[in-house]
Amino acid sequence: MAFALSERAQAAGYRVLSFNEIGSTNEEALTHTRAGERGPLWIAALRQTAGRGRRGRDWQTAHGNLAASLLRTVTVPPATAATLSLVAGLAAQEALRACAPGLDVALKWPNDVLVSNAKLAGILLESEPFLGGLALVVGIGINVGSAPEGLPYTAASLLALGRHVRPEQLFIALADAWLDYERVWDEGRGMARVRKLWLDHAAGVGREVTVKLGE
Known about the structure:
Blueprint: H1 7-11, E1 15-19, H2 25-34, E2 41-45, E3 66-74, H3 78-81, H4 84-99, E4 105-108, E5 112-115, E6 118-130, E7 133-142, H5 167-185, H6 191-200
Parallel strand pairs: 1-2
Antiparallel strand pairs: 2-3, 3-7, 4-5, 5-6, 6-7
Helix pairs in contact: 4-5, 4-6
């Protein structure tokens, strides 16, 4: 089954390109950017063979998981555009709650989605300037059917948690949730509201954390 958008998302001008397998959804989105595409365009795939995470790390997406990247253009400063990572986190957690009711989902700074302290989803923002604005790619990877192994942290998948969710179903919920939270964000003008909503779902509040900067 190919990935599709709801009628509401389509009416808002969003489109989607669907792949069974791809190197990287973020890279595919950037390739379209360089060819003149300005979005809003989703790139969605069941499997990535060359996915990436923060700081150049690999992001494993085995078949049956969800890799989705949204390409959109903004005219706000890069620092404001970067706050869309919070929008992505909110959209991912809402989609997960909608498709897997009762799931204990939390958001970890700056861009992880956790369930019972295990990483269920990751977010990566990348951008390229163009004349008149900034092309922004918001990558979201969710472990639906399996979780990667050999990581320095615990990872989880929906299937291992006893939740049978189709990636295509999850994508529709994700795209709809993104639409709602992006409207709240309102080109950065609604950031105070986004911040409050994010903190309402934040993991680790009131507890000690470890911060790694560079090396």
